[in-house]
Each structure stands twice: as C-alpha cells, then as structure tokens.
Amino acid sequence: MPTTFLFSSIFIICLALFSLADGGSIGVNYGRTAGDLPSAFKVVKLLKSQGITRVKVYDTDPAVLKSLSGSNIKVTVNLPNQLLSAAAKKPSFANKWIQRNILAYYPHTQIESIAVGNEVFVDPSNTTSFLIPAIKNIHKSLVKYKLDSVIKLSSPIALSALQNSYPSSAGSFKPELIEPVFKPLLQFLRKTGSYLMVNAYPFFAYESNADVISLDYALFRQNDGVVDAGNGLRYFNLFDAQIDAVFAAMSALKYDDVPLVVSETGWPSKGDDNEIGSTLENAAAYNGNLIKRILNGGGTPLKPKANLTVFLFALFNENKKPGPVSERNYGLFYPDMKPVYNIPFTVEGLKNFREETGTGKGERVEGSGSGRVWCVAKEDVGKDRLQAGLDYACGEGGADCRPIQPGATCYDPNELKAHASYAFNSYYQKMGRAAGACYFGGAGVVVTQRPRFGKCEFPTGY
C-alpha cells in the first residue's frame, strides 16, 4: 500500500471533528412553564437514571435546589431579567440574593454557574443597560463570600445578537451592542475565567430557509458540506456554522481566548403546519446526533480543540408556554417521564445508538430493510482524490486496511476504486458513521446497499 500522505486541510478538519478523544459535556434545561410536571424529587431521579450530570434552571426555586442536594448533578441557576434592575442598582440586593439563593444550598447542591438574565437584548422590558452592572454586583457578592473561584457568571445571548452570521467567517456582533455590552462582558469573562453562554437553534434557520438549507446539513446527517469562502473551512452541519459565527464575532473584538458554552439548543417534535421540519423524527435525529457529536469529542472547524458543553432544550414538553405549537414541544420527556423519543445521553449509551435515518416525515430509508449504511468511493472522481483518501484512511485515519494487502481476503480485485472503497468504509464505520466521516475530499459517498467487490464483504461496524 502507498504510504505517502497527501492529505488536504479538509481531512484534517474531519479528523479533528470526529476524534474519539475526550469529549464535551451534555446537560439539559429544566423549564417548568407547565401545569402537569412531576415533582422535583422525581425529576432528579429521572436525571440520574439517564446519566445526565448537568442541569440548567430558569430561577432558584427552593424545591428544585433542595431536591438536587447531594445528587452530584452540576447546576446552573438563573437571575431572571426582571431582577436585573435591582441587582444593577443595589449591591445590597445582590448580597441578599446570593445569601438566599446560593449560600443557602451550596455546596450540597453543586451550583457551578449563574446565568445573569436570559437573552436580554430581545427582552421587551429593555433590560440591556442593567446587564453589566448586575453581573459586576453579583460578582462582588461572590467575592465577598469566597465563591468567585468556584461559581462562574455569564449571560445567555441569542444568535440575534449577531449582525452577521453567514458565512461563519463574517460573524460579527450588532454594532450598537459592542461598546456598551460585549466588550465589557467579554473582558469580565476573560478576567474571571468564565465563558460566553449562547442559545443556538439551527431549527429556526432551517425553518426559515428550507429551500436553501439541506435537512441533512441541519440534522448532522451525511452531506457534502458547505465551504466557507472567507476561511476555506468546510462545514458539515449548521450547528458548527452557527457556533463558529459567534467565535468569529468574539475574535473580531480580540477575545478569541474566551470559551463558549451552548446554554440552549434543541429541535421541536411537533409544530404548526407552517413550521417546516418540526417532526418527532427530526427532533430525535437532531438531538441524538448532536449528543453523539459532542460526546465523541472535538470542537468546531474554527476551534477544533474546543470541547463544548451543551445544554439541550428542554427536559419536558411545557404545556403553558405561549406562541406556536413548537414552543410546547421541545421536550425530551413527557410529563409522565416517558421519553418522547429514545436517545442516549452518555458515552456508554452511544455504543448502541444508531439513528434511523428518514425523510423527516416518519419514513425510514433503509437498504434491504436493514437500516445499515456503508461508505464507498464515488464514480469518476479521479485517481488523485481516490489515492489521497486511501492514504489518509489507511494512515492517519487508522482504518483497518489489512484485508486489502496482497494475498489478503479483499485484495482482489486489485483496483484503486475497490481498495479505496474498502478503506473509506472501514474508516466510516470506525467513526460511528458520523456526519462528514465519508467525505474524503468529495471522493466518498454513503450507500444503503451492502457493497461487494469480488468475494469481499464490507463490514457494518466495530
């Protein structure tokens, strides 16, 4: 076999994205705008049974915080928007809030961060001007009680805070928010070793642009990817593109060293007729593939070493939320604690997870009824690309290429396309059939019929 490694930057990105090294972390948002939810005690049992080790709440409800005591679940609490004015104007209010809502529970309840406000830039009450003073006063209180080194402060922003988000390399914050909010906020986050919280919903972008955004691209499924003309990076999913737009906006202000946490993301399992893509199958695909993507490690194309912490929205369907049908159907579980759809939340659970890919309308697309897929070399892509992909798969990619060595079971037919197909598939199956793992510079394609070259049978997994 050739050992020359003529690998492009695209392959490097792919490897970084789907490395099985230490991965990120998955948490859930525990919203309670509903009238039929189980007790907080039962909810904690549910979280533990699913292996969920992080939870984010939208207040500091005593029943919830007491129930989480001793659970070893890390908690993010929220100072609501309606309290920002008081926290900004009165240091004494900040002190009392910390005493009542943090000191009363910590450390038995493992509060790891406080979200000060939530999407304040779109708050109809116009609370933006209070954000930075409120954060500073809350931080002074944490310092007073010697908790500033263990409890981080941040404020979740919506993607609407961006002036530009496409392409990712052009990401920038709205000019009117830069001086009064983002520069002091990012400076505070850098100084305190905290992170920017971002609420990112690829569903909204897909719903509004379904004519130009591929559903596979939105759901982390196999696709050819989209090249960002500004930086030359290839994106295989909309989530990465949105997050890198925020990273680019931070970098434009010289704060590219500040980490990022995805404080909300999700996909509705039901919606109004005009809410394109809001189906149970798509919700399961998005959240299941996102979890796989995060726990398997690797950051984004722009930040390949940034293992992300991501909080899914939301734990339950919330029947009292206003707005379209989708707003009441983001839940991973029904109020009776039965899953809306089955997805794993842990690395162990991922071992047996395989998304049942479909059309988004409940139809399963499967080869010969098996639901299995393989990666093979495309027709007419040229010998150079086939050879480069083969070299990568059998070299740095770590595919099992022993069967295509001279004299081995899959050496015949001794043809470049046959050998490349075997190597591509070996790598693809090794990577858990992750989105982008069958790209190979455009030389690979996913098929639903088991490929055959001579007497060689292609494996379906490891």
TrEMBL record:
GO MF assignments: glucan endo-1,3-beta-D-glucosidase activity
Localization terms from the record: Cell membrane
Source organism per UniProt: Helianthus annuus (Common sunflower)
Similarity field: Belongs to the glycosyl hydrolase 17 family.
Lineage of the organism: Eukaryota, Viridiplantae, Streptophyta, Embryophyta, Tracheophyta
Every X8 domain range: 373-458
Catalytic activity: Hydrolysis of (1->3)-beta-D-glucosidic linkages in (1->3)-beta-D-glucans
SMART domains for the chain: X8
Source organism, top-level taxon: Eukaryota
GO biological process assignments: carbohydrate metabolic process; defense response
Record InterPro entries: GH (IPR017853), Glyco_hydro_17 (IPR000490), Glyco_hydro_17_plant (IPR044965), X8 (IPR012946)
Signal peptide: 1-23
Cellular component aspect of the GO annotation: plasma membrane; plasmodesma; side of membrane
Alphabetically ordered keywords of this record: Cell membrane, Disulfide bond, Glycoprotein, Glycosidase, GPI-anchor, Hydrolase, Lipoprotein, Membrane, Plant defense, Signal
UniProt-listed Enzyme Commission number(s): 3.2.1.39
Keyword RNA-binding attributed: no
Topology of this chain in the membrane: Lipid-anchor; GPI-anchor
A family per Pfam: X8
Name of the protein in question: glucan endo-1,3-beta-D-glucosidase
Main location: membrane
